[in-house]
Amino acid sequence: MDARAIIAALRDGRGASAEEMTWFANGLASGHVSDAQAGAFAMAVLLKGLRPEERTALTLAMRDSGETLRWRLNGPVIDKHSTGGVGDCVSLVLAPALAACGAYVPMISGRGLGHTGGTLDKLEAIPGLRTDMSEAQLYQIVNAAGCAIVGATGQVAPADRRLYAIRDVTATVESLDLITASILSKKLAAGLDGLVLDVKLGSGAFMKGKEDARALAQALVETSNAAGCRTSAVISDMNQPLAPALGNGLEVACAMRVLTGQAAGPLAELSAVLGGLALAGAGLAKDESEGAEKIRASLADGRAAERFGRMVGAMGGPVGFVDRWAWFLPEATVIREFKAERAGFVAAMDGEAMGLAVIELGGGRQVEGDVIEPSTGLSDIVALGAEVEAGQPLLRIHAARAEHADRAEAILRRAITIGDAAPELPPLVHERVG
Asked: Is 96 helix (H, G, I), strand (E, B) or coil?
């Protein structure tokens, strides 16, 4: 086969066969396909699109370009994926809750991307915890704790890793087909029996509008099911942070309050909704409602927290973390209240801007290789629609230096709008797909 012929066929709308997709993916992984050819391939897909069967073939080809996990466990292997948002620490709650309900969860996660935080960065706010695990260590941790949240090894979907880097510098990141294949090639390489997807929409999400979010959710669900993994999705709201904090250590604290029964709210509720779908799909609950109640029960009685503690200890973190989590998490040098300048209602929040404020504080990366300050971020964030008085704190800024807090404050002044009337509040879950 020839890369030029495959690219030309895609460019002209004639499509590509499963065999051609496999050949191209293997060429990406091996280096036989050049950077120029990879970029041309991505642009052709962006401009012309793929048919559903071609998208599935590309996904499977990228999955099979590296190693895939094989499990021998006495329960279903399931996972969850979120398209990313601000204050979204559902993975920290849901993975151990699913494990407490009889599932096994090998969650291969990523680092911060753009204005959204990364699950691995959040976990690494816990002293001593490592997320770079070998395949043998992953098997061991999942067997012992029922769940593990780790980074992908170099052997998982190498074709995707190569193509993703090319997309980033060729203005082809937005391709729905390539987004779908990228997400699912890594997830399916984990050897899953079932998958639940959380597609975000709103100011703090990558997909701002409902139609774009629905199109992505449908593509993900259709492709994953066609690949043999039982999958469903929800479209959830990200017009305000999901948890009342942004930043790595601060989001771990939010997750711990939910895991230990000290807090409820949207983070706990969305975890229950997604968990209910996952348990029902895996046959561990008769329907979504029963599954959601099982997740809530695991949070209320401490079983989910116990699983989280097992996982933390197995990954190098403190053995007694669950009992003294607040003592272990880092604390910022500068903590400052950010106050309302006028009375009124919290009418709108620009979640993307709030995420960028956290990056200014050192809680994310400006460029690859930046060292993250795990103690920094925003906490005690007021809810959308809340009535506030002039001078009332809207949130607290956690910074390493006063000048960092100053820069974040300037961004936040533009990010939070106080109006005269209460806004219409969006639902937490807009719709279900699949």
From this structure: helix
- Write out the H or E segment, with its range, that includes residue 334: strand 334-339
Cα within 13 Å of Cα(249), Cβ side: 22
Q: Which domain holds residue 87?
A: 78-325
Q: Residue 301 has which token pair?
A: 């009685």
Low-confidence residues of the chain, pLDDT below 50? none
Residues 141, 108: contact at Cβ < 8 Å? no
Is this prediction's pTM over 0.70? yes
CB-neighbour burial class of residue 14 (10 A; exposed 0-12, middle 13-18, buried 19+): exposed
Q: Which CATH number is 50's domain given? A: 1.20.970.10
Mind listing the pLDDT tens digit for each residue in 76-120?
Answer: 999 999 988 888 999 999 999 999 999 999 998 876 555 566 889
> Does residue 427 fall inside a structural domain?
no
Catalytic residue annotation: 79-82, 119, 167, 182, 186-187
Query: Are 352 and 239 a contacting pair, CB within 8 Å?
Result: no
35 Cβ contact partners less than 8 Å away, ≥ 6 residues apart: 166
Same domain, 392 and 279: no
Per-residue b or e along 52-61, where b marks 16 or more CB atoms closer than 10 Å to that residue's CB: eebbbbbbbb
